[in-house]
Amino acid sequence: QRLDRLARLERLLDADAEREFAASIAGDFGCRSRVETILAEAVFTRSALRHARRQLKSWMKPRRVPTSPIYWPGRSRLLRQPLGVVGIISPWNYPLQLALAPLVGALAAGNRALLKPSELTPRFSQVLAQRIAAAFAPEEVAVVIGDAEVGKAFAALPFDHLVFTGSTAVGRSVAQAAAKNLTPVTLELGGKSPAIVDASADLALVARRLAFGKLLNAGQTCIAPDYVLVPRALRDEFVAELRRAVAALYPTIHDNPDYTSIINERHYQRLQELLADARARGAQLVELAGDAGGGNALTRKLAPVLLLDVDDSMRVMQEEIFGPLLPVVAVDDAQAALDHVNAHERPLALYWFGRDRAARERVLAGTVAGGVTINDTLLHIAQESLPFGGVGPSGQGHYHGEFGFRQFSKEKPVFIQSRWSGVSLLYPPYGPFTEKMLRILARIS
Question: Which domains does the chain have, with CATH numbers?
């Protein structure tokens, strides 16, 4: 049954569906490349499905676990069972991937699911609802469409598990609503994910990989690099390399079909306000594209901008950016970079660039983050053998691969007593023999 449901979900991503999903997402954004949608959403989800189908038999197998010697010859095992109904509240930035990736884990674990996609992607939501209804019975998987008030009511339902992907502020409200039903939650939130450039790094390579990770989906990615920490002596060289990298990826912005629009007017204006606040507080703005010219309100395309000489008084260093703005923080040494990261809330992702292995290990040991990619960006999320999730304000719980299967399962502990159990030797009435047995247990337990 589980394999059948996963196979139906995979058929939901056939070539015709891909085209329809990509067109609907492009319509919701205003401009978004079909290639970007297929690469970042459809390919990612198909990979998760195939991994789950290959590994499902192994994941479902009851696990024998050690039994304390004093209870031998009894045996212990874990049975992984479905929780029941999983609720999934997905966001607008990667609407296909972030609706279906948790659904893969939920179905693999034997659950049913109810999905609530974002109201900011209405075209996509309609297509998703129609295709889910064609592939699944309503008691297996169903889609609920509606505004923020519907979302609030959805979060208040007595699910057996609830998954929310979105902002930290909304995540708090979702967790509070779920708590009234004692519903366990997986929260995939966000925050300010740092990129640390070590003095040993190849700046040309760093610039190209950072530019891609930052500007994919025009920066509207929860694990996008939010700001960069660069050795002070290398700052100007880094800026020059980043300008070259952006020009190579996006020679133009406003008429470029490969460059994504900001999702709506409210988010576009929010990013403009971040720029205005930073400029007013003394930041130096460096536009990174040849036809930058700020932004185009009609297409909601906002050119990539570096912000230099930033400090924590600026909104751009206090809020998750979620757009193509990249603050650059110059630091005196590697320890200063570590101190800066650890002085702020724990991020959803952390990126480190360099060739010095000892420096890399100091960063890995000295920081706490939801996930890490070394010498690139974003790619830890694509590894099905690694869990995806935040820590502290950037989220709780995790999924992907077996970690998602386990997140959406109840690992039921079972102890199987033997006919020859010696536990009855400790039954009352107690006496000298019992005291002797307690002394023996103290030595072997």
Answer: 2-189+392-412 (3.40.605.10), 194-382 (3.40.309.10)
